[in-house]
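Deliverable D5.2: sample structural annotation.
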Amino acid sequence: MTRLRSDFWVSAYLRRCAIEGVEAVLRRRGAAEAGAIFVKLDLLDGTASLFGPAPQLFLDDTGDRLFYAVLQAGTPLDVEERVKRELRFDPDLWLLEVDDRAGRHFLELAPES
């Protein structure tokens, strides 16, 4: 099964967050067809997490995008530093930011290895 284009997925994700009443913004537009998607989750209490694409090991034939916690419960500055490193590696990535005190991110997470 083919995977949904990154730009379509991002649009749908932002719409889902809006429907659920969660603040989410597009901070960086990446490659439309296949750019990697990263989501920064700010809990608004001085902690934040970064979610990125799950390793290929967890992908199956459903075409769903799976994510994993690249950095969990760090400071927003820690997350920003990690994003800078990811950008040096992949300048075509997408970056979304979600602000939610309850920690809702609506991402499908890969099983823990």
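Annotation notes: Residues 6-19 form the longest helix (14 residues). The beta strands are 23-28, 37-42, 48-53, 67-74, 94-99.
The annotation will be released with the project's public dataset once the embargo ends.
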